[in-house]
Amino acid sequence: MSAQVKVLPRLTAGPVARTVIGLLQEGPRFIGFGSKKVRLTDQVGYGRLLGFGHIKLLMGLATTDQKSDIELIDSIHLDFNIDKDQLGNITRIFRAVAQADRAELDAWHPPVPILEAATFDPHLPKSLSSNRMLAARIPLLFHVGKSGFEHINHWDEVDLCLTAREFSALRHLTTPATTSELEQRISQGEEGLSGEELESLLERLLAARLLWSFEPDDPDFETIFQDGAKGKREAERLSRALFDAILRAEIRQPRRPGAVAVFPVNVDSSIAPLALGFLFAVARQHDGGRLNKSFDFRPNWLTDVTAAVPQGRAVMLYSHYIWNSPRMLAYSARAKAENPLALNIHGGPDVPKYELDVERYFVDHPYVDIAVHGEGEVTICEILDVLEAALLTTDPLDLSRLDSVAGLSYRGPDGRAVRTADRARITDLDDIPSPYLTGEFDVFAEAGVPNVILETNRGCPYGCTFCDWGSATASSIRRFNLERIFDELAWCARNKISAVGLADANFGTFERDVEIARRTAELKRIYGFPRHFGTNYAKNSVKHLKPIVEILVEAKILAMGLLSLQSMDEGTLTTINRSNIKLKKYEALAAEFRANRLPLYVDLMMGLPGSTVESFRNDLQECVDREVYPKVHPTQLLINSPMNDPAYRAEHGITAAPSEMVKSCATFNEDDYKEMGKIRRAFLVGEKYGILRHALRYAHQETGQREIDLLCRLLAAADQDGDRWPALRFTFLYIPALMVPPVNWGWFLADLQRFFVEQLGIANDAALDSALRAQHAMIPAPERRFPETIELPCDYAAWHADVLIAKENGHLQDWFKVVAPLRSYGPGTLTITDPNKICYQALGRDFNSGVWSIWELASEIARPSEGALTV
After folding, report:
1. Residue 501 has pLDDT above 80, yes or no
2. Cβ neighbours of residue 42 closer than 8 Å, sequence gap 6 or more
3. Which residues contact 371 (CB under 8 A, 6 or more apart)?
4. For residue 32, which phi and psi values (nearest 5 degrees)?
5. Is the Cβ–Cβ distance between 629 and 674 less than 8 Å?
6. Phi/psi of residue 501, nearest 5 degrees
7. What residues contact residue 502 under an 8 Å CB cut-off, 6+ apart?
8. How far from each other are the two terminal CA atoms of the chain, in whole angstroms?
9. Which residues contact 514 (CB under 8 A, 6 or more apart)?
10. Which of 2, 5, 323, 831 has its CA 20 to 30 A from that of 296?
């Protein structure tokens, strides 16, 4: 059924003061905003769980004029035994808000309409059925109005008004249940509802599109109400399948008595551990396979951390990354405690290389025997060579034998670290066998693991100080043989590997990378796999990226792109040793992604040495100018990065410990860092999620002020004068935590309209009205129905298209001077749809979640989204 077409009334300023109560996943919370006194809300009201007594107090305060506040507090205190001081605090907060401008609040009270229930949404049926699971579409925010707790829909209509008892009953709908189960939950005590009252409530929730309804076996049930359960179950299934495949491999390859078992320690069943696979493959073939006589390389590619640790002489191999180091160290400690004969060898990018860090590592982790620095394939073979004879006995190991082995530290007799000479990088990468082609990883294919990591080359020519990639692999890029790569890709395709990720630092640097993309596309056409292809694109050369993107797009195996910019400030780039990357090189790739209607993401870092609050703002504006999605990451001090070098730390005033966030340095202090954090949060909700994107584009042209500067003005006004801009303040302060409309987006945009007119001097005319209506249309709300078409006095879509054309033609910063004003465009329409189910699934999710980090609905003014390409 086609949705009813509604033309929004012209947006006008709503009530100056409003009070909001929220029903969240863990129960209702009182949330207020309005006058300056409401700042008490941040300390007293927000975060306080409310019971039925508190809800009745709010209802009484909003709807009863006969009782004084003291009488109301006394009655609630007696009826519910709630502390009077607590009730008094809530009362004072409520009065500060709700009576700030009572006359206007009284005048603002739209009628309660009877809305038609949707028929095109399978989870919003026309009528209730006893065998379906029901639940409220929480989080929900309600206005505390004179008639009760009001839900105000996207079109500024009160589509639901609840009594205190009904609102309290909603708490029992936060988890799914059938109507008979709900009757049992809700019928208890004074706040309970009768069967008829419950049916009435459910029907009104249904009509307002605020009630989920599911068949018991509906797959969407897990997606919405048991977020992560599906992924957890899939992980458990993969683990079982992988354990079974490993067991079958064990049966095929019985353990050899007398041989020293070598175990890879891996706790992730979703992907094959490439680094450990390289170690096994090269060690098994070393010196014609000689090590296989003394060592039993066990293909136990998934470690059961609940099972007994292998006993007797055993070599345990650990590959450390920042995300798995705690688990690696925990298992290493357990292995040494339960089996003192286990030799723990740790390597990977999260094992330290700087002298003081290495010394501290061995002190803090007394169960670590050997730490490998840099590439480990040759080192592990030499370790096993040198220790072979000693490991075949149970005598205490003399690790001083390792003095001749370069590239490691070992625990000396006194427990302290002993460092050997540095090891040169491997010259010929084809000396390292592929674990995919030697059979090491066949158990992953047998188990149906959907993801793999491949390497086509190693090295990075850039020595960026925040990253340990270039410093770890030197400046030259070394390449694996192309036929080997093709064979690995074919292995992936034949084994129905869904996602192939390349661990290259700069894919697209070489002409042969086009051939790699072409072979991947050919395999997709033959086998249907792989379906996804992820990599880090070349940072200083785009010559080969255009054909790569075109090939992958044509094969429908590329859904997004990622550029690792980190910063665009020249001073910051110099400080982090990244100034040799030419930023202009990114423009062609960005244009290519836009031409193919693919989303392009940009990695930015907040808190890089050399940066300031102003340079951070400029970085964000660069993303706005280029119309790309920003991913803004706080800078983390990686233990092996040049930024952690003691000399660099001293030069730039870095006090953070390894793995901590850099919150101060020579160019910014902790207060500056907090300010950057506030700007980051407002920018992500406004620009990335998109609730301000179109409004700020329009204001940029009208005022000549950049979007980031306008955003910071809004943020400052909301923070300093919250009673004047209550909806702005509430949105910036709470919506990143709640991730739902602030009761009604119209309130937010009404404040924005007043700010534009009163503070920026923008004309309150049809052009402003059109821009704000377009903005309003692009923001999700749970009750929306699609497709929806709105009529605009000025054709915003045509104006927006001209803005993009101007930017494509080199006017990134001065487009507002080139494009005609919006008011010069004639009337137009805008049609909005929601193919990616943003209104359905994305609201209420975590602010930092990846796939849901865009709220823009689909229309001709929307940016490309990840769901735009069917794979």
Report:
1. yes
2. 733
3. 346, 347, 351, 352, 358, 361, 362, 408, 409, 410, 417
4. -125, 155
5. no
6. -110, 135
7. 453, 454, 455, 456, 533, 534, 535, 536
8. 28
9. 544, 547, 548, 551
10. 323
What secondary structure, in 3-state letters, does 262-321 show? EEEECCCCCECCHHHHHHHHHHHHHHHHHHHHCEEECCCCCCCCCCCCCCCCEEEEEECC
Secondary structure of residue 372 in the 3-state scheme: strand
What does the alpha-carbon distance between residue 597 and residue 278 come to, in Å, rounded to a whole number?
Answer: 38
Report the C-alpha gap between 60 and 488 in whole angstroms. Answer: 70
Of 452, 437, 501, nearest to 272 (Cα)? 452
Name the helix (H) or strand (E) containing 23: strand 18-24
Q: Which residues contact 102 (CB under 8 A, 6 or more apart)?
A: none
> Can you tell me the distance from the alpha carbon of 834 to that of 61, in angstroms, rounded to the nearest whole number?
39
Q: Rounded to whole angstroms, how far apart are CA atoms 66 and 846?
A: 43
**DSSP output for 508-574:** TSSTHHHHHHHHHHHHHHHH----EEE-PBPSS--TTHHHHHHHHHHTT----EEEEEE---HHHHH
Instruction: Confirm if 743 and 141 have CB atoms less than 8 A apart.
Output: yes
Nearest Cα residue to 426 out of 386, 385, 482, 380: 380
pLDDT at 113 over 50: no
Distance between CA 647 and CA 782 in Å, rounded? Answer: 54
Q: What is the mean pLDDT of residues 19-32?
A: 71
- Mean pLDDT for the chain overall: 85
In this structure, what DSSP letter does residue 409 have?
E
In angstroms, the CA 17 to CA 508 distance is 56
In DSSP terms, which residues pair with 634 in a beta bridge? 606
User: Reduced to 3 states, what is the DSSP secondary structure of residue 104?
Assistant: helix
In 685-781, DSSP assigns E strands to: none
Q: What is the Cα–Cα distance from 813 to 642, expressed in whole angstroms? A: 34
**pTM listed for this prediction:** 0.87
Q: Is 710 helix (H, G, I), strand (E, B) or coil?
A: helix
Q: What does the pLDDT read at residue 106?
A: 45
One DSSP character per residue, 136-203 reads E-SSEEEEEETTEEEEE-TTS-EEEEE-HHHHHHHGGGSS-B-HHHHHHHHSSSTT---HHHHHHHHH
Angle between helices 52-63 and 69-80 (to 10 degrees): 160
Q: Retrieve residue 479's tokens.
A: 């390449």
**Under 8 Å between Cβ of 683 and 711:** yes
**Hey, what are 813's tokens?**
């910063």
- Alpha-helical (H) ranges within 321-454 are 325-338, 355-364, 377-391, 442-447
What CA–CA distance (Å, rounded) separates 238 from 450?
Answer: 9
Q: Judge whether 220 and 191 are in contact, CB under 8 Å.
A: no
Which residues are 631's β-sheet partners? 603
Other Cβ atoms within 10 Å of 344 Cβ, number: 24
Query: Percent helix, strand and coil across the chain, each rounded to 5?
Result: 45, 15, 40
Q: What is the DSSP letter of 78?
A: H
Task: Compute the average pLDDT of residues 408-415.
Answer: 96
Inform me whether the pLDDT recorded for 11 exceeds 80: no
State the helix-helix crossing angle for 274-285 and 377-391, rounded to 10 degrees: 60
Which pLDDT tens digit goes with each residue over 322-344? 999 999 999 999 999 999 999 99
Which tokens in the block code for residue 751?
């404040």
